UniProtKB/TrEMBL annotation:
The lineage of its organism: Eukaryota, Fungi, Dikarya, Ascomycota, Pezizomycotina. InterPro entries: DUF952 (IPR009297). Pfam families: DUF952. PANTHER family: BLR1139 PROTEIN (PTHR34129), DUF952 DOMAIN-CONTAINING PROTEIN (PTHR34129:SF1). Gene3D superfamilies: Protein of unknown function DUF952. This is DUF952 domain-containing protein.
Amino acid sequence: MPAPSPLPTYLYKILPAAPPSPLPARLPLSDLDRNDGYIHLSTSEQVPGTADKFFGSVSELWLLKIKYEVLAAGTDGDGDVKSEDKAEVKWEEVGRGCFAHLYGGDLGKGNVESVVKAEKKGSWFESLSLEW
């Protein structure tokens, strides 16, 4: 499935717990990401649904806000773009839509723009308003 048009300015990684502060060059992978072989990412429109589906029972989430163009350029968590084996964003069909997956790279201080703490008030759909 093709990438959304227009492409998002930001992608988000949902975390159920606060990441280390300051962010390291390489954040540890979640069990799901390690098992699937890529890092699961969401657009601003997808975050509330993903949060409700997978994190519905928690009252706080942390979101890594990542500029799409930084990931699309192959920027790894340490901020470097490798000439070989560079990280790649692929848009792939998943049951309820087309999601961004990061292959061959890590998230960290070199490609995460900011960390956003979100508190649930009602559902995540009611609680989140993120920048596209």
